UniProtKB/TrEMBL annotation:
Protein name: glycine dehydrogenase (aminomethyl-transferring)
Reaction(s) catalysed (UniProt annotation): N(6)-[(R)-lipoyl]-L-lysyl-[glycine-cleavage complex H protein] + glycine + H(+) = N(6)-[(R)-S(8)-aminomethyldihydrolipoyl]-L-lysyl-[glycine-cleavage complex H protein] + CO2
Domain called Glycine dehydrogenase C-terminal: residue spans: 384-490
Source species: Rhodothalassium salexigens DSM 2132
Gene3D superfamilies referenced in this protein's UniProt entry, alphabetically: 6.20.440.10, Aspartate Aminotransferase, domain 1 (3.90.1150.10), Type I PLP-dependent aspartate aminotransferase-like (Major domain) (3.40.640.10)
Entry function: The glycine cleavage system catalyzes the degradation of glycine. The P protein binds the alpha-amino group of glycine through its pyridoxal phosphate cofactor; CO(2) is released and the remaining methylamine moiety is then transferred to the lipoamide cofactor of the H protein.
Length: 525
């Protein structure tokens, strides 16, 4: 494609195609029927073109104090139809949940009901400003308060902080509450225990809060080694940070024993709630002995997910940590209505304030619409179907691939690269070939406990038909690898708009500035 004209080639060299002309001769334009070659907007537009007519402002006095622009900005311009065509063509090159199954493990990339999008766009929610007087946003405060009540009841926890903006931010909230509780007790515990299969944000968050991290070993069945855990407990242990179901897709069956041991040693139990989609409506984390847990509302409770945002990470707290919840929170106002408790007064043990404002309104409305439309029974089915679909994929691929752990998985299933040994194909090549089959690749090389890991989470929103198609594609690719068809993997993806890239060179020598190519010959020439 022309967008990489200044960089490395992104198409498959003609010699590499093996002379395959089944698709017909190359086109003169670079287009292939409805798959159109689309350049950067800088390549197809011109600074001299604009879609609007602006009048000359005439003489005026600037307020920029000598910082006025002295040279043209150089922004390219297109007419309205060409702008629409450009971005429509780019959108057609994307893979998203609206085009197919998203098997990314540990991410819960599921369909988001359009009803929730419609609710979030209602003017009363979408057009409000965080600095409005509280009397003008009573509906928004009621949404926050009602959602908080749902989340506390789903987890059987005593309090909740709604302000964290995403999962890692929620982790930070929970660990800051734990640190505040320890300081209130007059203790300077500084060790946090983290399983080796944990999300990378867990140890990072602990270190950010001033703790030291010790790694917990796993047993051969992929779960926390309880004996090794108990051996590490001592007067310096502040907390354990554990994901349940864990990142290998397995339920920590000894979780209550783990919680009891940590509490007996004087520590707290933080649970990473990234995989709550497998438990919602079925298990209340508070019943398991958990002291703090964040939600990924953008995973479990409906938000467009990907591209780094948007997100929301409310954090629930047990009775032991509830007094240290950060401000602000919603409370009943004197004289009726709702208000935000936004300041920390003398005698209040809240650890402080995490953000300027109170969370993500668009995420709250979507999440509450999701919860209310499903109800208790529907949420239970969400968890049950997510686990059912993962087990269906596991059973379908058991003969073709190698599952890392034979225990029955929860919401996701982990495979490793043992089935590829001796084939000349690695996990990356296998994933690239899956793109040619019309699927987004699964999570690769994570968790690190599995060699060449392939982590698959189908979620509850996929039908049996779509799972069968995915399993068929994966099975056929595994058979091709074992049959020695290495060219299928070495050159993949062959049919994507962008072909196999030199990702190492791209990371080490990124092209950060657009440089216009040599001008095309004019038609009149």
């Amino acid at each position: 494609m022309t967008m990489n004209r200044q960089g490395r080639p992104t198409g498959v060299p003609e010699a590499a195609t093996g002379g395959d002309t089944a698709a017909g001769p190359a086109t003169f334009t670079g287009h292939k029927a409805l798959e159109r070659d689309e350049g950067l907007i800088f390549e197809i537009g011109s600074p001299a073109v604009t879609g609007v007519d602006l009048e000359d402002p005439g003489d005026f006095e600037t307020a920029l104090g000598g910082f006025e622009r002295t040279e043209p900005m150089g922004l390219t311009g297109l007419s309205e139809p060409h702008v629409v065509r450009h971005y429509t063509r780019l959108s057609q090159k994307n893979y998203g949940i609206d085009t197919g199954l998203f098997p990314l493990g540990s991410c819960t990339m599921k369909h988001n009901p359009r009803l929730n999008e419609k609710i979030a766009r209602l003017p009363g929610f979408a057009d409000i400003h965080p600095m409005q007087p509280e009397r003008t946003v009573q509906g928004a405060l009621e949404v926050i308060d009602t959602l908080a009540d749902w989340l506390c009841k789903l987890t059987n926890m005593a309090a909740i902080a709604m302000s964290p903006k995403a999962g890692a931010h929620g982790e930070l909230c929970g660990m800051m509450a734990i640190r505040a509780a320890l300081e209130h007790r007059g203790e300077q515990r500084r060790t946090v225990l983290v399983p080796e299969s944990a999300h990378g944000t867990n140890p990072a968050t602990a270190v950010f809060c001033g703790f030291q991290v010790k790694t917990l070993a796993s047993t051969e069945d992929g779960r926390v080694d309880v004996a090794a855990l108990k051996a590490q407990l001592g007067p310096d242990v502040a907390a354990i940070m554990l994901t349940n179901p864990n990142t290998c897709g397995l339920f920590e069956k000894d979780i209550q024993e783990i919680a009891a041991a940590v509490h007996e040693a004087g520590g707290y139990f933080y649970c990473d709630g990234a995989n709550f989609n497998a438990l919602i409506g079925k298990v209340r984390p508070g019943d398991l002995g958990i002291d703090a847990m964040h939600f990924n509302l953008h995973k479990t409770c409906s938000t467009p997910h990907g591209g780094g945002g948007p997100g929301s990470g409310p954090t629930v707290l047990s009775e032991a940590l509830a007094p240290f919840a950060p401000v602000p929170w919603v409370e009943k106002a004197v004289g009726g209505g709702l208000r935000l408790k936004a300041t920390v007064r003398d005698g209040n043990t809240a650890f402080g304030r995490m953000t300027a404002f109170h969370g993500q309104m668009g995420m709250f409305t979507r999440a509450l619409a999701y919860l209310m439309s499903h109800g208790r029974d529907g949420l239970r089915l969400v968890a049950e179907d997510a686990v059912l679909n993962a087990n269906y994929v596991a059973a379908g691929l058991d003969k073709a691939m190698t599952r890392t752990y034979k225990a029955r998985p929860m919401h996701e299933v982990l495979f490793d690269d043992r089935f590829l040994k001796g084939t000349g194909v690695d996990t990356l090549g296998f994933a690239k070939a899956l793109i040619d089959e019309g699927f987004h690749p699964m999570t690769m090389y994570f968790p690190l406990v599995a060699s060449g890991a392939m982590l698959i989470e189908p979620t509850e929103t996929e039908s049996r038909r779509s799972l069968d198609e995915f399993v068929f594609a994966m099975t056929k690719l595994a058979e091709a690898a074992k049959a020695g068809e290495t060219e299928r993997f070495d050159q993949a993806p062959r049919f994507a708009p962008l072909k196999r890239l030199d990702e190492t060179a791209a990371a080490r020598k990124p092209v950060l500035r657009y440089e216009p190519p040599a001008p095309y010959a004019q038609a009149a020439e």
